[in-house]
Write a structure and sequence with these properties.
The structure is a homotetramer. With about 325 residues, the first copy, chain A, is of the alpha/beta class. Chain A contains ten helices and twelve strands. The two termini of chain A are about 35 Å apart.
C-alpha cells in the first residue's frame, strides 16, 4: 500500500492505494482514526463510496450550490463593458438571481480572436457585483492568475480545455475558494471525477461538477449535451452537478428546453449565457438568451424544479 | 432539374431536384398544382420547410402519436410468453396505457443469442392486445416479414441497426401502417430524416422519429442519449418525435430521470422498457423498469407534460 | 451449456456456450470428435483461438485472397455502362489485376440519388469480366438479391450500412460463395467479427474482413481510416483482412499513401476505386483514382509488399 | 481589417483579418513589404497557402526534423534513473539514433500516480545525453517550467492534454527552442494547426506537429491512430509531421506495423517508446518496445523510407 496524506481546509485524510485485502477494522480502531472506508473507484475523496452525504458549496450571504436546491447562474460569455455589466445585474436583480457568470480571460482557438478584458474587467465587475450582492463565477486559465484573481472571484471556473491541466488543478487545491470544473471537450465522466480528485486532494473540498456537452460526430449541434452524465455523476460523487445548456446545444432557441431537461435529469444547478443584445455579444451570441428569454427560463426552471422535488427520484 | 413523382396514400407530389433558380410562381400557377415550396434541405417531404403543420399519426380508437400530446409506449424488450404478455397488459390497463412495445424478431450481435418468438409470439400477443384495446409497436427486421406481420401490427419499428436498410425502408413505404424509425447507432440527425424521406417518398406518410442514444467514446452509459436531437428534429420536420430512455442510458435506476428530461426537451412521446420481473427478462433486464417504477413514471410523465404545456417553448 | 450445431460447406461443429468449467479432454475423447478448443471470445468459429492457421479464400483460376499474399481489388464505385466496364478491364489487364469491384445496387442516403444499374448491369459486367478472366466483387443489399445475383458474382460484398443486417448475414451463410464484410459505419472490431460469425455459423466459411474507415468527430476526411484494426483483426481471427483507402480517407490525392500505409499495417489486400475519368463518375469521384494513378499505385503496393515480406513482423 | 503584428525570431509579419476584397498588389508594392499572400484558412502563418516550402527544424550538430528526411525519436515513457538513461543511450548509439524522448513531468489522470523525477531527472538526463551527442525531447506542462527547463531541452513537447492550453502556447512562442505539439485527445486537425499558430504568432517558428491517436468509441486499441491526418497536415501546412504509434495503438506487438504505416502515410518522423525492460517500466509498459524490437524497427523504418523516397507520392 502506498499511502498519501491529504490535508484540506476541512480535514485530514490518509489515502492508501494497493491491492492486498486486510481487515479495515484494525486500522479503524487506531488512535486518531475517525472513520475508514473502502473505495473501489479510481477517485477516492470525491467518491460517494467514501462520503454519502451530499456536499453543499456555500458562497456566503446565504447563497449556495447544493443538492436539494436549484442554483441558477447566468450572464454573458464575455465581460465587455461597465454598461453591459450594469444591464445584466439589473436583469438579475429583477429575477432574484444571485450568481453571475462571465469571462475576463477567454480561451480562444485562434490567437487572433478577442481574449477578454483581463484583470481590469474583473475588478470593475467585482465592484458592481459586490454592491448588488451578486456572486462571481469566472474562468481561470493558468496558475499565475489564481493569486491575482483571488480577491475578486467567488467561484473559479475550470474550462473544458483545462479539465486535465493538472498543474492548474493542483494549485486550485491550495485556494480556499469554490471551484466549478467543466467536463473536458471529450472528457469521460471518470476523468472529470479524477480532475475533481486533484483539487480535493490538493486541499480544497469546495467543488462543483459541470456537464457542458461533449464532442461527437453529430454536427447539427455545437456539442452533444450528455444529460446521462447527471444521474451518473450524482450517483458516483457527493459533489453538486450543474448543467450548461448554452454550450451543450449551442443554439439559442433550444437552450430553454435543454435547461429544463437538465433540471429533470437531476441537476443541482443550471448555468446559461444571457446578454442584453445577444446578436451584438463579443462571443457566443448564437447560444445566448436575451433578458426576456432569460426571465422566462428562470421562472420555468423554478417551477419545474418545484415539481421535481415532489417526485420520488433517485 | 430531375423530377421524381411521389404518390403516397395521402397525396401526389413532384420533387424537382436541381440548382437553377426560377420563379416558382410559374409552376404554382399551372393546372393541377395545389401548392409549391422551395426546400433547401436534402430531405424534402419530411421537412418543415415543405409542411409546417405537425403530422398526427392516428392509430385508431382515438389513440395517436402527435405534437401537443404525450404518447407513452411501454412493454418488455422481448415478448417471452403468454403469461408475461398478460401481466404487462394488466399493468398497462391499470395505468391507462394504450401502446405496447415488445420484440418478436430480435436483432442480436451474436448468432448464438435468443432471437425472439417470431410470428407465433406476435399472433399470441396480437390476440391479447386486441382484446385489451392496446396497440402493438414491434420491430420488423427484413422485407419478407412486412407482409406476414402486417395484420398483427399497429406500428412497425425500424431498429437502430436498420435505419439505413434502404430496401426495408422502400418496402415500408408501400405499407399503409405507421412506422417508427429509430436513429442509427451512430446515425446523424440528417440521416434519420433522409431515412424517413425514403419511407415517405415510397408512399407512406405515417412516420414517427425516435431518439434512442448514439454511440460515443463515453462508456459509463450504454449509449449517449442525445436530447439535443429532440428540439432539432422538431424544428426541421413536421413528424412527431419520441424518446427511448431505456436504450438511451441503459441503466434501470436512471431511466425515469432521462424519460422526464426527454419530455422537457420537447418529445411527443416516451418509449421505455418494463417487465414484471426485470432481473428475469430474456434481454435488456438491466435497463427495464418493474411495474411499480413504470406506474410511477407514467404518472410523472403526465404531470411534467401538463406543466410543459403551460410553458411558452418553441 | 447451450449447444449449437453448425454445419458449413466444409465441416460440422458443435458450439457450447456456458460458464461451468469442465475437463475438455473428456469430450475430446468421444467418438467422432476430431478436435476441441476453448474460445473465450464472444465469436467462436472466426476466432484465431479456435483456428490458428490463416484461412485462404480461393476464387478459382488461381486467384485468392489470403495471408501471405497481396490482393489488389479495383474498379469504379458504380457500374455505369458497357464502355466504362471495357475501359476498366483493359486497364486491369495491363496491370495484371484480376479482381474488379463495382456497384450495381447502390445504397444511397437520399431516395432521390442514382441507385445503380441493377441486374442488367451485373449481367453485362459478368459477360465482359468472365471473358477477361476477371473476378467480380459487388455489393448485395438484401436477401432477395442473393439468388438472382448468385451466378454472376465471385465475392458478395456486405456494405458498411449492412454489417449488422443479420437476416442478410444469415442468408449469405447458406451461399457457397465468398463474402467480403465491411466494418460498420461506426462498428466496433468486435461487432465485425460477430457479423462474420453469423455468416460462418450459417454455413459459409469463405469470409473476408474489410476496414473502410469509421465515423468520428473529425471532418477533414470522409471517414477515419482505422489502420489499428488491421493488426488487431489479424491477431484475433484467421480470416484475411483488406483495407479500403478510398472510403477510408475520401480524398483522391491521398488514397495512394493510405493504401500503402494499409499494406504496412499488415493488410492481405487493398480495395480502391478507379475510373477512366473520375470527375465524370456517377458517384464517389472525389475519392477515385484515374488509370495512371491506379497503375502507379498497383506497382507501389507490390513493391512495398515485397519489402514487407522480408520483415519479421507479427 | 484588424491587423496583428507578429515578430518572430526569424521575421516580421502583418496579419490582416477581415472580409472585404481588395487588390493585394497595392499593399505588396508598399515600402518594406517583401511578400504578401491571401490565406483563407483560419490559421495563417503555419499554412501552406502562405509558405509553400517545407520548414526544416534544425536541432544543431546536423540533426534535424524535416520533410524529405526521417526522424526517429525514441526512449522511455518516463525518465526513471541514471542506469535506465545510460542503457537507453547505449541502445541509441548502437543504432545511430540521435533524438531521445522521455518524461520528467508526467501528466497523470490520477493525483496519486507517479508524476516524474522533475528537474533533477532532467539535469541528470541532460548531462548524459549531451556527452553522447543526443538531443532531448520532453514534455513541458506549465508556463513556470519553461524557464527552468530551457537550458536542458532541445525540443519542448506539448502533450495531448495541453494542445489547447493557450497560455502555455503563448509562452512557448517566446522561447527560441523547437516545440513538438501533439494533437489533442479529441482534437481536430484544424485545432492542431490553430495551436501551432499560437506558438508561431507568439514568435517561435520552430514547430513540429504530431499525430498520436484520437479518442473514438473503439476500445480495442488505446486510441485510434488517425493516419489520414498525416497527408492532410502535410498538405495544409509547411511544418514537419511526426507520428507516435505507441500512444496511437497502445499495444506493444503492433507498434512496429503502425510505425511503418505512418512512414508510408507520409510522416517526416516517428516517435515511439522503448525501454530495456518494458514490463518493469514505471508507465506505459504495455506499449513500449524492448531494445531488440526497437533496433529492428529502426532498421525497417529506414528501409521503408528509402523505398518511399523512390515513389512519386504527394
Amino acid at each position: 500500500y502506498t499511502v498519501t496524506e491529504v490535508k484540506t481546509q476541512v480535514g485530514a485524510y490518509l489515502i492508501g492505494i494497493g491491492k492486498k485485502a486486510f481487515d479495515i477494522r484494525k486500522i479503524g480502531a487506531l488512535d486518531g482514526i475517525q472513520d475508514i472506508h473502502i473505495v473501489s473507484d479510481e477517485y477516492k475523496l470525491v467518491s460517494k463510496k467514501w462520503k454519502v452525504k451530499p456536499t453543499s458549496i456555500d458562497l456566503g450571504d446565504g447563497i449556495a450550490i447544493k443538492d436539494g436546491d436549484m442554483a441558477i447562474i447566468t450572464g454573458p460569455c464575455s465581460i465587455e463593458s461597465e454598461e453591459q455589466i450594469v444591464k445584466v445585474i439589473e436583469h438579475m436583480k429583477e429575477n432574484n438571481l444571485t450568481m453571475m457568470r462571465g469571462g475576463v480571460f477567454k480561451p480562444r482557438s485562434s490567437p487572433y480572436a478577442f481574449r477578454g478584458l483581463g484583470m481590469e474587467g474583473l475588478k470593475l465587475w467585482y465592484r458592481l457585483a459586490k454592491e448588488a450582492g451578486i456572486k462571481i463565477v469566472t474562468e481561470v486559465m493558468q496558475v499565475s492568475q489564481i493569486e491575482e484573481m483571488y480577491d475578486y472571484v467567488d467561484v473559479f471556473q475550470v474550462g473544458a480545455r483545462n479539465t486535465q491541466n493538472f498543474n492548474l488543478l493542483d494549485e486550485l487545491g491550495k485556494a480556499d475558494k469554490a471551484v466549478l470544473i467543466k467536463r473536458g471537450i471529450s472528457g469521460t465522466i471518470e476523468e472529470l471525477l479524477q480532475s475533481a480528485e486533484y483539487v480535493f486532494s490538493g486541499g480544497n473540498e469546495k467543488l462543483i461538477l459541470c456537464e457542458r456537452g461533449i464532442r461527437t460526430y453529430e454536427k447539427a449541434s455545437r456539442n452533444t449535451l450528455d444529460l446521462n452524465a447527471v444521474p451518473i455523476l450524482k450517483s458516483k460523487s457527493h459533489l453538486p452537478v450543474v448543467v450548461d445548456p448554452s454550450h451543450g446545444i449551442g443554439i439559442r432557441e433550444f437552450v430553454p428546453q435543454m435547461a429544463l431537461a437538465g433540471v429533470m435529469a437531476g441537476a443541482d444547478g443550471i448555468i446559461y449565457e444571457s446578454h442584453e443584445n445577444p446578436d451584438k455579444a463579443y462571443s457566443d451570441g448564437q447560444q445566448t438568451l436575451n433578458f426576456a428569454q432569460s426571465s422566462l427560463l428562470a421562472e420555468q426552471i423554478r417551477k419545474i424544479f418545484a415539481m421535481r422535488k415532489t417526485f420520488d427520484l433517485l
